[in-house]
Specification:
Radius of gyration: 14 Å
Distance between the termini: 34 Å
Number of strands: 7
Strand order of the largest sheet: 6-5-4-1-7
Number of helices: 3
Shape: globular
Largest sheet: 5 strands, antiparallel
Length: about 150
């Protein structure tokens, strides 16, 4: 199967998962392990407003979405939580993700943010695929986690 077809499969699953979210429920798609950090410092991880630091197992790059009524608050890991280079940050900004230092109204996150709609989960899935590609994660496979958080 080609890489393009595998990304299409991930996009399709993302649309299905986002469509099935109940109000107040979230989806996190994350790498199985943190990639090596060039700074030597352990990575921090943000889970819906909480940082997981001491005692937490290292986790790689991730995207997450929370259903808030008819909105989907989409987030992509930023340099605050992973070793994201300035070039990859610039690529995320060019895709339409917010600048974590200047968040969109209604968002209080140190991650990159994109506001989507429950009526159009495909646009959020496209943003997630674009983000993962910009981050250089490779195509999510069976080792990746697809977690639902209530």
């Amino acid at each position: 199967m080609s890489t393009s077809a595998r990304w299409d499969d991930v996009r399709t699953r993302l649309v299905d998962e986002l469509t099935a979210l109940d109000d107040g429920q979230s989806l996190v798609l994350s790498e199985p392990a943190a990639p090596p950090r060039s700074s030597g410092r352990p990575a921090r991880r943000r889970w819906f407003g909480r940082s997981a630091r001491s005692g937490a197992s290292p986790v790689g790059r991730y995207v997450q979405a929370s259903r808030l009524g008819t909105d989907l608050l989409c987030e992509c890991v930023s340099a605050a939580y992973a070793d994201v280079s300035p070039e990859r940050t610039a690529a995320l900004l060019s895709l339409g993700w917010s600048d974590p230092g200047r968040q969109l109204e209604g968002a209080s996150s140190e991650n990159h943010v994109y506001w989507g709609s429950v009526q159009d989960p495909r646009s959020c899935a496209d943003m997630f695929v674009g983000a993962l590609q910009a981050l250089g994660t490779g195509v999510p496979d069976a080792r990746w986690r697809w977690d639902r958080v209530a």
